Amino acid sequence: MTRRWPVLLAMSVSLTAEQRLVEGNPASRVRVVAYEDLQCPDCAAYRAMMDVHLLPKYGAKVAFEHRDFPLPKHSWARKAAIAARYFDGVKAELGVRFRQQTMARIREIAAAAFDEHVRSFAKAHGADPEKALAALADPKLGALVEEDYQEGIARGVGRTPTVFVNGEAFIETFTLEEISRSIEAALAEPKK
Description:
By secondary structure, this protein is of the alpha+beta class. The protein is built from seven helices and six strands, in the order E-E-E-H-E-H-H-H-H-H-E-E-H. The protein has a single domain (13-188), classed as Glutaredoxin, CATH 3.40.30. It has helices spanning 41-58, 77-90, 92-104, 114-124, 129-135, 139-154, 176-188; strands at 13-15, 21-24, 31-36, 63-68, 162-165, 168-171.
């Protein structure tokens, strides 16, 4: 069964100079940085939490930054991260939608059918399917994914999702209340 979440495209979506996706307020001093694996069920639960609760409540006040952390145990996670980076470059909102739809279909997508998932998504959203498939082998996109992964390793990330709220870590499974409390505390801190 495919999960459906609201698509929040009225929310600000942008790319940083380092080509990293940011949802919400990119100028915010409060940063929620998530190391994610698009094939990870816990990451899909976090994505749903973001779409249903966090972005509607905090999107105007907080920057939600994405980092790629494809776990080696997941057969198509790296390709998914590269595809998401490609769609980010087509249009940042398309990158968000790809992440949402891919995570919603984690249990349906077989490794052998991943390329077809990318092709179908591209076609359904007005992107060139052949360019999207070719992007899976793009060394520049692969390097961006690897850069995020290595940054995560350097920060002690080993499981996904690992989410940092202004530096405070939440690892793998956490509640909406826990992360909301941390966001509220960060928002309440005096500006420096």
